[in-house]
Amino acid sequence: MTVQSLVPALPRNRFLWPLLATLLIIGWSSGFVGIRYASQEASVVLVLFWRTLLSGLILLPFALAIGPRISLRMVGDQMLFGVMAVFLYLGGFALAIEQRVPTGLVALISDLLPLAIAGLSQPMLGERLTRRQWLGTAIAVAGVLLVSFDSLSFGAAPLWAYGLTVGSMLIFAVASVLHKRRRVRHMPVHQSLCIQTLTGSALFGLCALWQGNITPPMTGAFAIGMVWLVLFATFLAYAVYYTSLRLFPVAKVSAAIYLSPPVTMIWAWALFSEPLTAAMLFGLAVTLVGVWMTSRG
User: Fold this and answer.
1) Quick check: is 117 in a domain?
2) Residue 184 confidence (pLDDT) above 70
3) Residue range 198-216, pLDDT digits in tens
4) Residue 154 covered by a domain
5) Which residues contact 102 (CB under 8 A, 6 or more apart)?
6) Distance between CA atoms of 96 and 162, rounded to whole angstroms?
7) Which residue range is the domain that position 162 belongs to?
């Protein structure tokens, strides 16, 4: 029995989506922890190279041994998603941060991903959101703004760098909708994620070589960061995201990502003693209401 055959067999009960949404939020928000540890002694591009390379190499023996035979056409499809959903998405934000776009603004734009997906899902998938869902989306966006308000600034980066953050977010939104649309050639998640991460690692490796170095720093902080990024921000987040896309409407799945900013603030408070303000907690409550209204549809 393959991993792919297990996905449709998951029980369609009322507890399935809350479970997947919880795992998705934990995985999506945990990327902050890994980056915080790993980037202390390495550039963001070097961190992304080792994150994607280790993820792909760990998955490779399972991808070859478990699941259907992988055709060249399937590899080409997943390489395209690897370029869009791994290299351009993660790399675009990394480059924007290196160009001095404030991290808070980059995080805010990336966390508006569900809004872009909601806008694309109707013309590309025919998934029409109800008025309640659009209202829930607006409430969730307001909650994200409340959570992120204290960390927002515009900085002095070149204009194209700001556009890069928006473009990276839109590319991932398009990739998500295309992934949902092309369900005929769906692969088991471990196979598709293996190809995507290895594709991303090859491109990030070229970028790291262009910067002059692909050798990882042999420190405890970098090792902890890699563990977080590989196990949680890659395996958990991407695997649950792609599995959820096969079972639920894309706008419903992406709406859970609105909870990533407030949960990230909780990570920062618990692990790095960063302040957790009343405004952040209020923003979390508002975002929860918005996500609940959107997911009900």
Assistant:
1) yes
2) no
3) 999 999 999 999 988 888 8
4) yes
5) 151, 152, 153, 154, 155
6) 7
7) 15-296
Look at the chain and report how many structural domains it folds into.
Answer: 1
Q: Is residue 9 part of a domain?
A: no
Please report the DSSP string for the chain in residue order.
--HHHHSTTS--STTHHHHHHHHHHHHHHTHHHHHHHHTTSS-HHHHHHHHHHHHHHHHHHHHHHSSSPPPHHHHHHHHHHHIIIIIIHHHHHHHHHHTT--HHHHHHHHTTHHHHHHHHHHHHH--PPPHHHHHHHHHHHHHHHHHHGGG---TT--HHHHHHHHHHHHHHHHHHHHHHH-GGG---HHHHHHHHHHHHHHHHHHHHHHHT--PPP--HHHHHHHHIIIIIIIIIHHHHHHHHHHHS-HHHHHHGGGGHHHHHHHHHHHHH-----HHHHHHHHHHHHHHHHHHH-
- Specify whether the CB–CB gap between 131 and 282 falls below 8 A: no
5 within domain boundaries: no
> What pLDDT was estimated at residue 149?
67
What is the pTM assigned to this prediction? Answer: 0.80
Give the angle subtended at the CA of 120 by the CAs of 152 and 181, to the nearest 5°: 130
Q: What is the pLDDT of residues 47-74, one digit of tens each?
A: 999 999 999 999 999 999 998 888 888 8
